[in-house]
Structures are given as structure tokens and as C-alpha cells.
Amino acid sequence: MQIEKITRQGYSATLSKEVLWDIYKSMKTQRLLEDRLLKMYKGGQLSGAVYPGIGQEACMAGIAAGMDSKDIFGGTHRDLGVQIKKGVTLREIALNFFGKNDGPSKGRDGNSHFGVVDKGTLMVVSPLPDSAPVAVGWALASQQSGSGVVAVANCGEGATATGTWHESVNMAAVLNLPIVFTVQNNQFAYSSPNDTEFGTPNVADRAAGYGIPAKIIDGNDIYEVIDAIHDSCEEARNGNGPSLIELVTFRHYGHAGHDPAEYVNDEVRDFWMKRDPIARFENALLEEGLFTTEHFVNLTDELETEIKDTLEWAKNQDDPDPKNEEADIFALRTTPKIENSEDNKKTMNYIEAITNGLDELMENDENVFMMGEDIGVFEGAFKATKGLFDKYGPFRVIDTSISEGGFTGAAVGAALAGKKPIVELQFYDFVYPALDQITTEAAKYHWKAGKAVPMVVRGPTGAGTRSGPFHSISPESLLAHHPGIKVVAPSNPYDAKGLLVAAVNDPNPVMYLEHKKLYRKPDIKMDVPLGLYEVEIGKGKIVKEGSDVTIVTWSGMVSVAEQSAQELEEEGISVEIVDIRTIVPLDEEIILQSVEKTSNLCILQEDVPFSSVASEISSMVAEKGFWNLDNPIVKVTPPNTHIPFAPVLEDAFIPSAEKVIKAIKELQ
Amino acid sequence: MSQIVTMPQLGETVTEGTILRWLVQVGDEVKEDDPILEISTDKVDTEVPSPFTGQVTSLLVEEGETVEVGASLLELDGDSSGSSVSEKTSDEVETVSEPVKEVVEVEVEEVKSSPVVKSTNLKLSPVVRKLATENNVDLEQVTGTGSGGRITRKDIESFITSESQTVQKPKEAPSQQKEKQVQSAEPSSGEISRLRRRIAENMVMSKQTSAHVMTSVEVDYENVEILRSKHKKSFKEENGFSLTYLPFISLATIYALREYPVVNSSFDLDKNIHSFHSNINLGIAVDLNQEGLLVGTLREADSFSLKGLARKISDTSSKLREGSYDLHDVSGSTFTISNNGSFNSFLTSPIINQPNVAILSTESVKKRPVVIEAQDGTDSIAIRHTGMLSLTWDHRAFDGSVALLFLNSIREKLENSDWSQELN
Q1: Do B125 and A626 touch (CB under 8 A)?
Q2: Rounded CA gap, A269 and A163, in Å?
Q3: Which parts of chain B sit beneath pLDDT 50?
Q4: Confidence class of residue A182 from pLDDT cuts 50, 70 and 90?
């Protein structure tokens, strides 16, 4: 078979013999390792899956070789070659494949689904290209701090059809970020050929739509890949913004170990086998007289032994201990709680307390920055960022495109890069497009990749403003269901600022739920301390003591509980109100103690009832406080439906004091 | 109208009962209050009177079967006379006295129409059950103010606060003649009786709970013996039972308990509570003719005279041996005496009756040679009535000095008190 020739011309022509050998070695390591893993998988010695990138070695090694060592790479499960060239060891890879305790993901994810952030590779997850917004965020942090780091966001051509990829490229283009988008077009998304995936002749044609430059290169020519990546990275590093590189290549095997790839016809296969990246690289090295066939043969022997030995070694390492199943779900905070004398106070309403908190947080720590729609010049839909754009400028109060998934994912990347991002969702109803990034990336990073993600997602929640089904949700139950994220919901100005400060200083993703009906509610105006202070996350508060019945509630429903309590008191029923303030982690103790005192529990929430926080609290008390109950637990919630617009319907939907009083009177 | 008779809850700690014997058959006509079966629970064996009048349509459990409180036992076809007076015909009118230990399954609509509802007929909430158990409350006596007469937490709390725990005795004291087990030379095995099991569980529980230590002193009973022999005959004639050492020891113990209230306490390490009892409820261990052991309680024993104590001890022992007691007679003791002397013991180390912190064992009193020192310092040997008093006490609650001071206080009173006034 006649192998297509390659020659080096640009940046690659400057590389030394040693550097070239290193690149060759990483390509060869990837091929032999994946070949071995595939055989083990087919022989039943490896559980999970194998996603061989054999045939794409030049793309992977070339991307890594074209990047600077400090640059960050966000890729996919078929990027082991990049990880190897970035310095991830065979041992780390082998441990992860066997799900071992000392592997990069501690056995929490298998095979090639891992990253080693300290070596410059972001956590690999299955939904693709979910690491793209994260890479965008890292680039954003780099732009802010001037670190000179470039991010490379890589995926296959199939993943470019997602909104996630579009939002990432668009955001990067708009913000002129130091990032390079690479697409390894290996002809098939699993089994689907190019013409079923996109309408343009090439993936790269899409760059015009974002206003960024693009190249289409031969992904099986190692020199061309190195040159293209290097040039694009340097452009990005120099402030010239992102670019897109389409690396045309071919996957020798199927999508995964189980896939025989019968959908590839012989003609296509023959075309690509003549362009095998390793054979072409070997020929070029021989032609230049840098190495001999003996070098290649010896290296193969060495690597085969090393791979075999390493896999054998890894197999016998410790499995993770099921006792630690729940470990690492949250990063532990190591910084002290922020306190001040609270002597200097100013009367504020709820939203003023939030704005004041944001202002002081940004003033106090230059790593704190904000992203969201219309939060800059316009100062936010509810004016929560009033005065902040003028004070901190466009690099710290960033107006984003309408890309909830994109900028929430970017917050993850920025947090990983050392920033403390605060994301504003214009309405918390728009958390749905961001949920993939919140749950796939933010919630799992510390658990699966050992890296803390200190970020806050804040925004208005709740009904009562005649805004209909898409501007009114109470998302606490939706969010609380996912391990790895904290959820807070303050009910008054003091807690609003204190919890915001605590949320920004927490090393974990915190969902900060504001209630829009409270923003300017005059009767909850109160003295709020100036200067930073915290309300501890995970601690509820008794807002009113009583002896006959406990109402557990939070956020906008606290004032409804207070009104109910007042009326019930007149009838001789003494009500204790617990404002839990934090949904996750839940202050079980304060609830159980109150129930021990009153023996009666009413849970009041604005969120719909089925599978909700109220259900969870009810279940918790039934399990842990059963012997203190004198009546069945009651929940006062809206009906299990969507939030309606018509005033008469909306008013009937939201739990009222009348409903609470009725429910409590039916106890006894 | 079909009616179901259910397993009654005879005492708040009782969770199940065994059907000993059916006293009625399918087809029998039964009047309200007629005995229909005999049951055995943890502490009491009793007959269950029918709460209804009617014809037995089915027996739902077998003799010997153990079922939970509330389980259906028997089905009757007839009047729901137990719950609705208005439905009765004139010839069915009977006594108004409240049935005490019966449990009646009352249907909801009947509860609503009934002005007075027996509380135990209704569902009890978890906290009411917990408080009742913790405070030894007889729920029969708590008036429910909740919906449909349900007992609420408030009801039980105000009941405990008012301490109005007046005991109602069963209308009839059913006595259960126990068959003596025939001693057999052949090896045999069988189920452990309910009482035996209860004793066994309590003994092991106590040993696992308290840090048992036994301490004893020797007592010269000559002072008591002189008085006892003097009044022996007249006492028996007057009261119909013998004057033993036990009332003297009990009285001395009551005085000593007043001096050392820590011995009359309960100690709960788990809950971190040490409670000192305001009353002295003296427990007296009573042997049930070698078929078991029960502790009878002399409530507020510190209000009795020597004679009163003697009578109360005698009455309680008889009641327990006859099986004609109720829960009140066998619960709530704050300190216990085990009268092992009556079986000629020399020294005993009894197991503490929880939740007491000590138990006194009286040992046999015998004539023994004793060295007596005269006032001039000369020694002589005399024959005196002496015996040991031993105390097993909980080292968690107090220490050896208290135990011995307490024991010596009893000894000192027995040796030196002038009891003659008490018996005249």
C-alpha cells in the first residue's frame, strides 16, 4: 500500500529530534494501549467500555503538541492521546479503566471518562461537548487575569450539532476569548455519517456564522495538525480571539469496543488506511533520516511490555471502599467565616441588600465577577446589579448572550481557574437550559475530579407577579434533588446579604434563590449591616416561637406563615415558625427540635408538591421524629400544576394564610 | 350487626397477649360483660368480658396463640350495646360502671355520636404513646379532647402534670388458678411461659443496665425480737396474719431512704437524667409459689405506720399470689426489698429491679452466739437473734460510702428504735 507523504514546514519544522520522538512515542503509546484495552474488553477482562481513537493519533498528539504546556484542554472520551501527550501517565489511565481507588476519578467514573486538571485536561463527561463551556470559562478567567493561558475545546463533528457547542463558540466569539475550538471530524457520529449531521459541506463553514476564522486540515498529518493548533493558540494568546479548526480524520474502529463499524464501506476505509497517521509519521521520520525502523520496532516492544505490566499492576490495586460512597460530594470550606461587628447598619429592602452584598463582595475580592443577561449597562431586569457596571466595568460585570447553558458552564471553568463567578439567571425559570452544566459539570467536579467549583447561580424565583408559567417557578425541589449542589433561599434582607456572602465564599456550587415578590416588599425592610458578614449555609432559624404547631417554610412563604400565626394565635393556637433558609444541606436538627416541642408539623412551600422539598421534610420527620408527632404531617402547597397567569388563578395557586390556618385547624 | 372483639391492652407496656382458653363457642348467646375468654399478657392473666350482647359467629384465634393488642379475637352478631346506649331495649339495661380493661372496637360514626368515648378505643399518636410509656400513664384515665375524643399530647401532658393517677380497680378480680406443673424425672422441654420470659428479660436487662455491687451488714435483731415475741399472739389474733421481721425492716428502710434520697432514685445514663423520687414506693418481691416472681408495690409507703405496713405487705403478697392484682399493684416501685430470709438464706446478692438503683435483701434471722461487751469493758458470750442485711446497689448512681451509710442507718434503727408505741 502506498502511504501518502507528509512534510514539515511551519512551526513543526522548528521542532527538535527529541520533541518529535516524544510526539511519536505518545502516538504509539495511544495506539498500543487502546489496542490492548480493546482486546481485553473483547476478552471479557475489562468492564465498562473502550472508545478507541486508533486512526486519530495525529489529531490528539498534534493538538497537545501545538498547545503550550500551561494551556488547558477540554475534550471527550476519545482523547486519550491528548491526555498522554499532556503528561497523564499510563498508571493513571489504567487505574481509571479498572475503577480503582487511586485513579483520577477514584472509581467514580470508568475508562477514558476522566481528566487530570492539574495536568491541563478537564474532566471528561459523557454528554458532549459539555466541557466546551467549561473551557470557555477557563479562557474567560485567563482573559480577566492576563495569565496567557489558552483553552482548547475539542469534540467530534457529531457534538457540534448541539446547542452547547453553539453557545460556547458564540460566547467565545462575542467576548473575544483566548480559545481554540477543534473538531475531529472522523466521518461518523457513532454510526451517523456527516450528511446526516450538518447541512454545510464542512464543519468549519459554520465559523462564518460566528465571525471567527476557521481552517480545514488533514487530521492524519501530524505536522499539519501541530502547525495549525500552534498558530491558532498563539493568535488567541495574543488577544486575537478564538478560531475553529476542523481536523478531517478517520476512526479505524467503531464508536466503542462493541461496535464493529459495519456502516463503513471498503472504499472509504482503503482511502483512510493509506493515510494512517503513524505510518505517515514513521515514513517522514525515516525519510529525514532522524530515526531507523529499528528504533520504531524497539519502541513498540518496550511499550507493549510497559502497557501489559501497568495494566497487570493496576488490576491489583485497591478498589474504592463503598464506605466512602458519599465522600467528596462537597468540598470542605477551609477559609474562616466572615464576620463583622454589625454595628454599622443601613435600612435596606431585600434587593438593596443583595446589590449591597454583590458590591462589597466584588470590592473585597477581585476574583469575584458576574455574568448574565442584561446585567451590565441595563443593570439587570430587576436592577439587582445597579451601579455595578459603572463601578467594576465590562470585564467583571459581563453582559452575556442568551446562553444559560453556555455562561453557567463558563462559570464552572472560571471557578476551576481560580475565580469566584456569580451567574445571574434573569428568571430562575431559565435554569432548565443550564441544568445540564449545573448537574453534569458543577455538581460532579469535586466528586469525580477532586476539584472544587466555587460558583453562585442567583436569580429571581416565585410567583405572584402576574408573569405566567415561565417567569414564576420555585425551583428548589428541582435543584435539591441533585447531589453536589447547595441551595439557599433567603426570606429577608439580612439573610439575603449574609447568605450571598456565604454562598460566594463557599467552595461549592450554590444555587441562590431570590424571591421576586420580596425584592421591594416594604414591610420586610430592615437594618442590614454594612461590610461583609455571613449567615451560615445549612442553618435554619426560629423566626417565631410557639408551642402548639410548627410551620416549616422558607423564602416568600415565611411572611405567609407569620400572618397565619398571628391569626391562629388569636384563637389560642400557638405557632412556631422555622425558616430553614437553606434547602441543601437541610438543617434537620432545628426542624426535629421544634417538632419535639410542638408535636405538630405543617410544611408550607410555594413549589408544587409532588416529589418536593416539603415531601422530603415530611419524610425526614416521619423517619427521625416519628415518636414526637401528635398528628399526621400536613403540607400546604400549590396544586400539582403549572403556574397560571390569570390573576384569579394565580392567587388561588399560591398558598395563602387562609389555607395554612385551615390546614392547622384540621389538626388536633 | 356484626361486632368484633379485639385483644385488649392491659397496661401501657403490653403489646401482645396469649389466648389461654375460650369460654364460649360458635353459636353461643353472649351478654355484655359475660366472660368470653381467658388471656395471658406480660403481667396479668385475666378473663375478658364481652363488650357486646349477641351470638358468637366465629372465633378468630386459636387457644395458645399469641396476638398483638388490637387483633381481632371473636366475631359476634348482635347489638353494639357497648357503645350506644340509646339502642338498648329496657330489659338490657345494666350497670353503668365503666368497663375498665376491655377494649372495644368502635366504628368511626359511632364515636362521633357518642358523648363519652373511651380513650383507648381510639388511635394513639406516636407522641402520646411515647409519653404514656415514659410516664407510666394508664391511658384509660386520660380524657381525650382531640377530634372524636382522641387523646392529644396536651391531654396527656396535663394529666401527667396534675398527677391525678387514681387507680380504678377492675370490677371483678378474675383469679386464675394455675395448675401445678407435675415434676417429671424424664427430660422434657417446652415453651417458656410468658411470666418466666418477662422475668428473664428483666433480669438480663437489669444486669446489662446497672453496675451491680453487693454490700452487707450484720444486724442484731434482739431489740425487734423482744417486741415481736411480746405481740406475736395478740397480733395474729387481731390481724389474722403473723408479725414477721419484714415490716420492721421495711419501716427502718423507709426512714433510711428519707435520709439517703439518692437510694430512692432512678438513673438514666442514656438520657443523661438522674431523677429523685418524691414518694417512696416500696417494692416487695413476692415469690409465686416457685412459679415466678413479681414485685408488689406499696405506693407512698412512707405514709404507713408499722401496722399499716405489715397489713399492706400481707395484702399485696396475697393478691399477687392469687393473681388478683392489676398493673397498678405491680408497677412504679422506687426501691425494692427481697425477703430471702423467709427461705432461710444467709447472704444473697439480688438483681436490681429497674429502674431502681438498689435492692435490699433480708436474710434469715437466727439465734447465734455473740460477744457482748458490758459497760465495764468485760466480754461475755450471749445468745442473740442476728442476721445479715445485704444491699445490691448501682455503682453508676452512687458509691460504696453511701451504700454502707444507708445500710448502717437501717441497722442502727433496727437495733435501737423503740417500736413499742407502734404496736400498742
Answers
A1: no
A2: 31
A3: 81-120, 163-183
A4: very high
